[in-house]
Amino acid sequence: MYWSTLLALAAPALAAPAPQGFGGGGGQSGGTTMLRFGCTQVVIDRIDPLVNPGQAPTSHIHQIVGGNAFNVTMPTDDVSKYATCTTCQASEDFSNYWTANLYFRHKNGSYKRVPQGGSAYQFSDRFSTQTNGGILVYYVSAAPGKITAFKPGFRMLSGDAANRKAIANQKLQNCFRCYTGPNFGGDTAAPCQGGSVDHVGLPPKACAGGIRSNILFPTCWDGKNLDSPNHKDHVAYPTSGPATFLSLGGQCPTTHPVRIPQLMLEVVWDTTKFNDKSMWPSGVQQPFVLSTGDDTGFGQHADYVFGWKGDSLQKVMDTANCMGASCSTQVPVRQTIDQAFNCKVGAKVHENYDQWFDKLPGVGDMPMKS
Predict the structure, then answer these.
(1) Report field, pTM of the whole predicted structure over 0.85
(2) Closest C-alpha to 37, from 137, 119, 129, 116
(3) 87, 88, 127, 195: least CB-packed within 10 angstroms?
(4) How far apart are CA 291 and CA 111, in angstroms?
(5) What pLDDT digit, counting tens, does each position of 91-102 carry?
(6) Are 72 and 348 in contact (CB under 8 A)?
(7) CA atoms within 13 Å, Cβ hemisphere of 274
(8) Within a 10 A sphere around the Cβ of 254, how many other Cβ atoms?
């Protein structure tokens, strides 16, 4: 699989010491780039400046990472001009990334937010494995052809929070992995490639090592619009499917001819403390529900507001044959995890997100769909 290929290519560089260990490598000169870094949480809040600008509270809770310009309403120009810090290891990345939270549903009807773990990837650096909640961010480019980094003001959305049914190619766009061993399993297989490793929805069983969620964004752009009314129409997946870009291929449709980096978000949910089935509601295959009220997982989604400083992301995308912990002189400036932890945004909706809830905040009156 492609993931194994990347690991094989990266192994010699990974064996050598590298400060804070994340890297990039090549879009323009025929190689492969896999920029991978962790971001701690900047805030957990019930707002969504992309889908519901100006509204507080919104219908469901998100976990947010990245720059401290995140707010109920965000500027539509260069976000990096408004942020003074970021929770990401790449200190020139003031973008914001956010996804729905995951909750455990107890048999007594109450809900508890599932904590997030650090990266489960076996070659990850200290930063990514100790984020204490947060998201692992990937920017991948692959031959053939030029990769154009996102422009200031760019935004997009992957997935549909309202979806409750499996759709064609969904496993290749959003997927969940059930870790069967301790410490999140350490599985290195490529995400969302089909087969039996990943689930389209939430895994229908107890996962001894936790659950991993991967969300792959579109890799083709119309070259004109930085956003669209539904935050999707200005971008597209390759004609051969969402994940084929990760397989060193995938042609863009003629309507969206510009190749952009493959942005992928990875979230690890530490569900291990909820594996006692005596706590589960009777008759369910799994007791977890996204903060949208979705207990299928088909509605997993993620939002992105680009905020890299200057042309720093483009420089990384133009650096060939570099990934993992290699090419330390080519990647953006790194910061320590302690610096990232010091970057915070005050919550706009004041709720204790870690208490037991009688109903899900914002969507608690909606009927569950098992």
Answers:
(1) yes
(2) 137
(3) 195
(4) 10
(5) 999 999 999 999
(6) yes
(7) 24
(8) 8
